[in-house]
Amino acid sequence: MLGSARSVAFDILQKVERGAFASDLLREAALDPRDAGLASQIVFGVLRFRAQLDFLIEHYAGRARRLDPEVRTALRMGLFQARYLERVPAHAAVAESVELVKRARKTSAGGFVNAVLRKADRQPVVWPCREVELSCPEWLLARWERHYGAGVAEGVARAALCEPETYVRVGAAGSRIQDIGSQSIVPLLRLEPGQRFLDLCAAPGNKTAQALEAGVDAVACDRYLRRLLPMAGLGAALVVLDGARTLPFSRPFDRILVDAPCSGTGTLARNPEIKWRLKPEDLAGFQRRQVALLEQARAALAPGGLLVYSTCSLEPEENEEVAATVPPQLVVETRHRLPGRDAGDGFFAAVIKSG
Question: Which CATH number characterizes residue 93's domain?
């Protein structure tokens, strides 16, 4: 019988190819802890090393072939287990990958899958280019190199191949899993008890919870009620709204956080599908919404107040170029966190005063 961990991983990877996010699907999967761990390893491993795995398929097959998506997914899974997971016996990776293509009604491809995976070993391979070696699209590598330098760009890409560390923040209300990069944003607001605080893009609520520990009077917003509902017990007023439009509040806020929706290129170790899904032209769309969010937030900022604009993106279109829409004398400071150089996810933050 096909192992449930591998069958779930296969189904998730197929759905990711159609636009879903792996982390969401893994949370929803009903697996025992042991199977959940293996499924997670396979899913994220295939997504992180996809370019290497696709090169290895051609390497072991002897030539490039046009493959059905189900066959390619099964081959990627088998090669990842055979080359990257030492605890998985090679025969298990082969046999169950063949079963996966049969389950997907691609029985005729079973012999090909078996033949390719039986050639797989752990011997070093000469990668043809850095895009394959670093398993990252060349256009992303090139823009990071232009913006940060070659060494940092390679460090960012290599960090995205590693399983991210788990960080736990211990606060007044207890402990909560929160990336250390994410934890660094709220302190920039210099919160004090009694201040009116607005979190304009609040879900899933980690930063709102962190801010509440300072004793602020908090309002947390999101475009969708379903994203706000898990925050019901935090103690903040919850408001469903589109922060890129005129805000409905009659009183200004002393402190505002705009943790804007973004490309997420600072979180590739955690969300590796982003690097295969994102296109250069997508950045302009993110920027338009980010500029609108920042404009509305600044209009709601009280005299003498502070606003932090932040993203988990590494791209200047979403960071420096958005901050540049504010008069430069109002930008108090900017900060970068870069994977491979700094612990945790990548983040950008600009601290902005009222004016």
Answer: 1.10.940.10
